[in-house]
Each structure stands twice: as C-alpha cells, then as structure tokens.
Structures
1.
Amino acid sequence: MAVEPTPLAASNPRVSSLRRLTGRRKARLEAGLFVIEGPVALGELLAAGTTLDEVYVDVDAWNGADDNSALVTAVTLASAAGTPVWGIAPEVFARVSDTATPQGVLAVAPRRVVDLDVMVALDGPILVLVDVGDPGNAGTLVRAAEAAGAAGVIFAGSSTDAFGPKTVRAAAGSLMRLPIAEIPDAEQLVSDLLKAGRVVIATVVEDGIAPEDLDLGGSPVFLVGSEAHGLDSALVERCAGTVTIPMNLDVESINAAVAGAVVLFEAARQRRVAAKQLPSSN
C-alpha cells in the first residue's frame, strides 16, 4: 500500500478531539467540523468534492485490507488530496466510533451550511425539517431531497444535528452536494420564507389535501414535523396549504422520512409533467 498511516497513541490529543466530535453536537458546532465513518460514506464525500481535515484508520483493518478494497481506495484518494492519515489501535478506534460495528475509517471535515438568503434564492423546492429528532430519518430525508431535485434542506427548531454521525451516514454524499441551512427559530423561519414570497406547505397526518391534488410545481417549501408530535398548529395555520398522504385505514401513520419522500417525489413528478407540456422551441 502506498499510504502509511502515522500511528497515534490513545492519549494523543487528536484522538481525544476525535472522540468529542463523534459524541457531542456542541463540540462539532464549536469546531465547525463533523465526522464521517466508513469507506463508502467517505468515498461519496470525496466524490462530492469535500475537503477533509484528517483521516483515521483502524490499523488492524488497514493492514488486513486488500489493495482494491473500498477502505484502501477511499483512504488513498484522501491521502492523494493531501489529507493527513493517522493510524489508531482497534480498541481505541472502537471507543471513538459511533457504530456498533466500526468500519475501519473515520474522517474529519468542515461543516458546510448556507445562510437563509442563499437558500431562498435557489430555484426549486425546499424541505424544512422542524423538530425532526431521529438522525436516520433526517439523513434519509436529505438524500430523498437530492434525489427528488429539491434545492436544499433546512434543519429547524430542535431537529437533530445535520452533521451528527448517524445523519451523515444516512445522507452520505447528499449532505455535501445539497445546500444545508440550520435555523433554530422555526417560527421566524416561516415568517422569513413567507416574506421572501415562498409558498409554504405543511405535511400533516390528517385533514390535508392529497399530494396529487395539490399544485406542487414551482418552488414550494415543505415542512415536515417531528416523528412524535408533527408540526405545531401555529406553524400549520400560517402555511398556504396542508398535505396529507392517503393511506389504508388499517395504517395509523408512516414515519417522517417516508412522508417527506412521498411529497418530494410527487412534486418532482408534477415538475416533469409540466416540463413535457411546455411548447417546443423548434
């Protein structure tokens, strides 16, 4: 292997810093950094053009890896871009890792967020997560938003950290390719979106209009609420409309990630239909 990781002791300050970044949102915010785990996620972020600060490998996993493995490929690409590569013992790696089964590589990268004025100037739908607490759902929604052609995603209220380890794994490269904003005050966010002329639509469990019966073309903003309580009624009242996904009566509800994805892809379908109906320029 061309890459030779520089070994670090368990007491090295870099290891302590890495442990804080994987475990504490406050540490990630203060440092302006986040952690990626796993060769596949690392490879996606590198492909998205992400600049990495550091890479850490489990020395046993590294020494036992095939030269053509995803682990060696991703780390070699990072090293070729000038990223320092450090080696740590398996037991230390396991303590730092956020997963039950560590995947052999961790990387540190800068958090990348945009301001709200940048977000609202973008063409296309925007997805807003309001108090979405499950990082897996949040990451899945980011990935679905990119797949459906959304302009960006806003993490609002008490939503999980957009750059927490579980969110990063679920979103993978989408987190770097898609504009992300973080706005703690959800009420002020909705006010600012309305002032910017955006049509804001709330996803609700019942009494909303089916997505196929709403005009979701153009650049609407979709609000998705918490898994447990949905959206606050005060926010819903300020929206231009509400959307509810029709379901079999035997099913009480679906989770936030599925609901958001259904609405996003219906909006994408409507945009495709509208594009086909445009008169030809020939």
2.
Amino acid sequence: MSDHIHHHNEEHFSGSEIVRDIVIGMSDGLTVPFALAAGLTGAAQGNGVIVTAGLAEIVAGSIAMGLGGYLAGKTEIDHYASELRREYLEVDTHPEKEKQEVRDVFNEYGLSESSTELIIEELSKDKDKWVKFMMRYELGLDQPDINRARQSALTIGISYIIGGIVPLSTYFPIFSDNAHDGFIYSCIITAICLFTFGFFKTKIIGQPPLIGAFKTLFIGALAATAAYVIARMIGG
C-alpha cells in the first residue's frame, strides 16, 4: 500500500517582497526615463542633452525610489514593534480580554467550545507564543525582517537604474547620431522590454501573462506619447 502513496508537494511562490521591489523599480525605471527621453526628443536637437538629462533623472530617481522603499520597510518594522509592545502590555494587564479575543478568532473557524478553551489554556502558559498568536491572527501582522528596509532600498534602486538605462542607451553615440534615430530605437527596445517584463511579472504572480504584458506596454507607451506631444507643443 505504501508503494502507491504519492506525496503531495505544495508549490507556493516565495520571495514575493523581492519581486514586488523589482517590479516597482523596474516599472518606473523603464517608464519614467523613457517618457523623459521621448519628451526631450520632441524639443532637443542633439543627443547630448537627452543623455545628460536622462542620466541625471536615473540617478535622482533611483535614490528617491530607494529611499521610499527604505522608509516603507522601516515604517513596517516600527509599526510591528509598536504593536508588539502593546500586545505584551495587554496580555499582562487585561488577560481575560485577550483570551476572549482568542475565542473570537477560533469562533470564526467553527471550533467547539471545549477545543477553544483547551487552546486558550495552552496558549496562556507561554506569553511569547500567546502574543505571537495575537499579532498574527488578531492583527494580521507577520514579523518583518530586520534587514528588510535596506534590502528593499537596494533592490528598488538597482532595478530602477537597470530599467532606466534601457530606453536611454539608444541615445548613446554607439547607437545613433541624432535624437530622432535614438528615439526610434528606444521605442523598439523599450517596447520589447516592457512587454517581456510585463509578461513575466504577471506570470510569476499567477495572473494571465499576455494581459499583463499588454497592460505594461500600454502604460509605458501612453506616458512616452504624452511627454513627446507636450514637448512638441511647448517647443513649437
């Protein structure tokens, strides 16, 4: 009988936070510098201005995005620590109220009263496990990685730089001598990258990849078109 037993291995995607940071950095990196370069193409004659402005934007954008990721991660850590202190205090000062909150959690799952009381009795013997349970199931908070803020900042910043170099690279002298050619090449390579990035991004998170690919491509194209048209109008 044991020879016919098949072990079921559940496969869940891990590393969602890293992927989220890459998506944030890469999406903006591909879109914003591309829109900027497109807008400058409509107003500038030479590639030098576009490359200089583009590089400046990539540096500033990567720092701003990375800092935003760091502050978001730091806020998450601080929030968890604050709630953790509050839960420890409430367990000490209002244990019966906290036990009732445990009952409320298990009532939602339809557990019998006797089973619930047994769990509460066991939980209340270990304050750390009790507080951890309340953090997870009452507040819906998981303990964040203490290094999360720095990792997030680094991941978002690097992803933004990589994404930003793609549309700007075609304006370098080795690719084109004038802004118009650079713009055409930039449109082609950025469209391919946006489509590919959108495809794999949505595939990883379990969404229809083609729909995600076209959405990402559409957003990038819309931003670049708007910037180009506005620059043309202002530049006369």
3.
Amino acid sequence: MQFKITTDYAIRTVLYLATKNEVTTSGEISQVMSIPQKYLIKLLGELRQNQLVRVHMGVKGGYTLNKEPQDISLLDIVEITESTVKINRCLEPDCYCSREVTDTCLIRKHYVAIQNHLEKSLSQITIQDLVDGVEVDLS
C-alpha cells in the first residue's frame, strides 16, 4: 500500500501551518513545501471542507489550522485524502468477498489485525508529535 501524493502534500501542508502558527499564504506554503500552488489551493479547499484549516480573506489573508496540532492525527488527514484506508476490499463496511466466505476466511482475521494496527498507529501520531519530533511508541 502506498499513500497518494495528495496525502503527502496534505500532511506537509498541515505540518507547515502548525509550525508557522500564523496566517500563511498558499504561495509561501507552496514554495517552502515544494507543492505546486494550483494543486495546493485545491487541497487547501478539501482541508477547509473537512474543518482542518481555516481561510482568512483579505489583503493579509491566507490559511491557519482550524484545530490544535495535538488534535489532528495522521489518520484524520489520511481519511480525507485517500479513497479508503482499508488494506483489502473485504474490510470495507459492506464486507464484500468475491468468494462469499467473509465469516470463515482464513486470511481475513489477519487482515483485520493488520488493519487495526495501522489505524491505531496513524491515530496515535499527531501533528504536534511531528512538530516536536516526538517518537511515538506504536507497539
């Protein structure tokens, strides 16, 4: 599994806003974080729709975080930018299985364990942890 570039850009954007802790323009974010500005503006719109960033209009306008960095996990961002965080189709809410053996599948229980560990790990790492350089124990 590999995150989309959008997810990487979103994490970098939120991280940068957390480190700046002031109204910041898309141009500055784009330049410092090496994100194409047109792509970034679209991404910032998505982050705004999901209440992670706030838009400030006017001459001194730009963007700030809408939540405290310690209240934003990597999972929060990944769930916005990825179409799914599930490692297999059978783990989606509809539990689709091409063999129709979801309840007896020998592999699925291991997928569930991996999925739970992945989501727990992503939810334990906050933007504040990244800002502080904290190593989170994911065991």
